[in-house]
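Journal club side-thread
Mid-discussion, someone asked how the predicted structure for our own chain would compare to the paper's figures. Pasting it here so we can look after the session.
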Amino acid sequence: MKAHFQMMAAYNRWANERIYAASRLLPDVDYRAARGAFFGSVHATLNHMVLADRIWMHRFTGEGRTYARLDEMLYDDFELLRRSRQQEDIRITGWIDGLLVDQIAGLFTYRTISNPADITQPLAPALAHFFNHQTHHRGQVHCLLSGLSIDPPSLDLIMFQRETGIGMEA
């Protein structure tokens, strides 16, 4: 199970690098324009992904800042947002690498944001959600890029596995 989450952390980092590289090609007006995604624009969606990762990492580790709103704007500048994304991906990968099998199989407790409540649940399904959430919103950005005539990169997990060899072990 740990190897699976290590693969997902590495995939997450790889896919984020690819989606940021494609997003960088957009003119600023297109990058920031509301286009019907859940958080509106490419910028707001990328911002939400960093914010949500920080919220979940705070829940998982008790470290770092948490936030009161899921749409709080962390950075207005693309480069600051991109560097923050890279730092968060390094943090996620390091934390996953340090997890013990017993921790993955154990419970953890956190407080929700939208409808505040304390939740206790197994860690493994929450980790699955954590990585799935990233994939969901990257897919939205991918779709927005397609609509803006940017050739979005493949973000398929199998492409990551083929390129890196991670997850291809017998």
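Post-session note: The chain has a mean pLDDT of 95.
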